[in-house]
Design goal:
The structure holds two protein chains of two kinds. Chain A is α+β, with helices and mostly antiparallel strands. Chain A is 56% helix and 8% strand. Chain A is built from 13 helices and eight strands. Chain B is mostly helical. The chains are: A alpha+beta, B mainly alpha.
Chain lengths: 492, 179
């Protein structure tokens, strides 16, 4: 601190008590030496006194005026900020504004989401159809090229569908499936189907088999083709492919009353089956009976040349109980449908008569053989003729017994069926349907819950952003109103 | 000026709705606030109006005061802003005339204080602000620096310059202690 001016500045700070310890010591030392600076200090003190006294000397009282206005303001409750306002509260109007913005956003975004969802459903349905068609091809590979039965395909294919959900269109889940198989191709050999790429096997349908155009605003139906591809068809295209939009192919009688059920209920079962269209199948069905240690009681084939009415074969057979499971599998694999009840009669008399006739014939044969051995050569031809006649009688009697046995077996089975098949109230199918309904309701509730959570998550950042924005604005306001603005270097 | 715990208490009570506490604040500070306003704008009547408005505005924005203990410095900031606004309005018509008139020594002062005030008005606004802050509101260098948006060292230099200017003006008017 060499210059005079610097000492004066230091003295000024000293007078304002703004010096640190070292500077104060230095200034005090300097003051004791320098008369000029001592005088400067005195002048500063005197100027300050004059200044303060001059300016504060005039009496003035604005207290009343200020307080009058303050009281008035607080009385009218228009005191903005007289009470501290918590930073994290939204006023009602602001809350409404936020909710309004959210609603607008939601209104804008929901249609977009729902359009996306609709598209997703179409593709998910199409993928279901495609998977079912592929499963049918696998089925055909295992069953000598034959497709499943069109009326029972959902059950026949059960082993080929890991997930039963693929039988349901997401838009219209229904029992047993949202899809139907084209009846015309029931049990057809895949390779026999002409023009595979245009032959529809499976399609979106109502439970009665009517085609259902669920997609693309009522003009789209997903269909699977014999060559394994799947695509969405318009009504026009559907008709171009030779399909009817209204016709429903009638189904066979109640499927509940099926082969498996009959076989499960009869211990030593006679079985009556229906075979459609293919004579080959009758042979294979008969073979199945024999292979399982049973026998055929009756077998007949009815041919129908009228279109729309399938030719049918009827086989009635008997199998031993331990073989039931094998028969079930083998016949099920061939796609047979069981037929209704079998009417029987009491054949005891006929049986007894026939059995007696057999016994008599056998006894007569034995006697004739004994006589023949004892008789001279000349008499033998006569005895041979008698013997031949007796053999014929024996054959007839055996045939009669056979026929009686058949009738008895049929009656037994018929009676068993009547006894053991009351119409069940609580069926497996009913339980399945109830379970499916429950799952559907639960999934809808779950979806609602998930949506509420998701939308909530979506709104949370928005609300937080608004709150932060408000808080920041309030801080900026405070800085602007409450504190003086920074002054730049001006006329000094 | 250190933090005033009394002011802090009064501010808090005012925020809780006690208007008597605010009256206490007005009573404590009104003289100096009027003086500062007078010093800044040079017109006693206007100074009273400015002080009134400053207290009202302070009351309205009290909740936004972050450090209630520094009420006085904050209030002085408001007064300073208002005085500047007042001067800005006044400048085009009157101030230019006054400026010409005031320095004339030919006008004989009627009273000592009026005389001194006229002398003070000859100082530039920047000096007047620093003097008002330092002598009337008793703000320390740090607060002055904060108010003006400059460094503490700079504030110290400005105080010195303002005091020098005051001394020169006083000496010129012959009203102060002679050097």
């Amino acid at each position: 601190m060499d210059s005079h001016e610097q000492w004066r500045e230091a003295v000024s700070a000293y007078a304002d008590e703004e010096c640190d310890q070292d500077e104060r010591t230095a200034v005090e030392a300097h003051l004791s030496e320098c008369a000029d600076c001592r005088q400067w200090l005195e002048q500063l003190e005197s100027d300050r006194e004059v200044f303060t006294e001059t300016l504060t000397g005039r009496p003035a009282d604005i207290l009343d005026a200020v307080m009058k206005r303050v009281t008035k303001m607080s009385a009218q409750k228009r005191v903005a900020g007289a009470k501290p306002k918590p930073a994290f509260t939204l006023r009602l109007a602001e809350l409404f504004a936020v909710v309004g913005i959210c609603a607008v956003l939601a209104a804008v975004l929901f249609p977009v989401f729902s359009r996306g969802r609709a598209k997703a459903r179409v593709s998910s349905c199409l993928s279901n159809v495609k998977q079912v068609v592929l499963a049918m091809q696998m089925y055909a590979d295992d069953y000598d090229g034959h497709l499943p039965n069109a009326w029972t395909w959902t059950e026949d294919m059960a082993a080929y569908l890991n997930n039963e959900e693929i039988l349901q269109c997401p838009l219209a889940p229904m029992e047993p499936s949202s899809y139907a198989m084209v009846k015309r191709w029931s049990e057809w050999k895949l390779e026999d189907i002409p023009d595979e790429s245009k032959a529809i096997i499976i399609y979106d349908a109502q439970p009665d088999g009517t085609p259902a155009f669920r997609h693309n605003d009522g003009d789209g139906l997903n269909a699977g083709f014999a060559d394994g591809h799947a695509q969405m068809l318009s009504k026009k295209r559907w008709e171009e492919l030779g399909m009817s939009t209204t016709a429903v192919t009638p189904g066979l009688p109640d499927r509940n009353y099926g082969l498996r059920r009959m076989l499960q209920l009869a211990y030593d079962a006679a079985i009556e089956v229906w075979v459609t269209d293919i004579q080959q199948s009758v042979v294979s069905a008969e073979r199945t009976f024999y292979e399982c240690g049973g026998f055929i009681l009756q077998s007949s084939l009815t041919r129908h040349d009228t279109p729309g009415q399938p030719s049918t074969a009827q086989i009635v057979g008997k199998v031993p109980t331990p073989e039931l499971a094998n028969v079930i599998n083998a016949l099920g694999a061939l796609g047979y449908v069981a037929k209704r009840e079998i009417v029987g009669e009491d054949m005891t008399d006929e049986y007894t008569r026939a059995a007696r006739a057999i016994t008599q014939s056998q006894q007569k044969t034995q006697q004739l053989q004994v006589r023949r051995a004892a008789a001279p050569k000349a008499k033998r031809p006569q005895i041979d003729t008698e013997l031949q006649q007796t053999q014929t009688e024996l054959g007839q009697a055996q045939d009669e017994v056979f026929s009686v046995q058949r009738e008895v077996a049929l009656s037994t089975i018929s009676a068993t069926l009547r006894e053991k098949m009351p119409q069940p109230i609580l069926t497996a199918r009913g339980l399945r349907a109830a379970w499916a309904g429950f799952v559907r309701v639960a999934s809808v509730l779950g979806m609602i819950l998930v949506r509420v959570l998701l939308y909530g998550l979506f709104f949370v950042p928005l609300i937080v952003a608004v709150v932060i924005w408000r808080r920041r604005r309030s801080i900026v306001d405070t800085a602007r109103e409450g504190e003086p603005p920074a002054q730049t270097e001006d006329a000094s | 000026m250190a933090i005033s715990y009394r002011d802090e208490q009064m501010v808090r009570r005012t925020l809780q709705g006690d208007n008597r506490a605010y009256a206490e604040l007005v009573r404590t500070h009104q003289t100096r606030v009027i003086a500062a306003a007078h010093h800044l704008c040079g017109d006693f009547e206007a100074a009273q109006d400015i002080a009134q408005e400053a207290f009202i505005q302070a009351y309205q924005s009290l909740a936004k005061l972050n450090e209630p203990g520094k009420f006085a410095a904050w209030l002085h900031g408001i007064v300073r802003n208002m005085a500047r606004k007042h001067l800005a309005r006044k400048r085009p018509q009157e101030l230019s005339l006054e400026r010409d008139r005031i320095p004339e020594p030919s006008t004989p002062p009627t009273e000592d204080s009026t005389d001194t005030i006229l002398v003070l008005q000859t100082l530039p606004l920047a000096h007047r602000e620093v003097l008002a802050a330092r002598y009337l509101q008793e703000m320390d260098y740090q607060e002055i620096a904060q108010m003006l948006g400059i460094t503490v060292n700079n504030a110290r230099v400005r105080c010195f310059r303002a005091k020098q200017a005051l001394r020169t003006a006083m000496a010129g008017a012959g009203g102060g202690a002679s050097g």
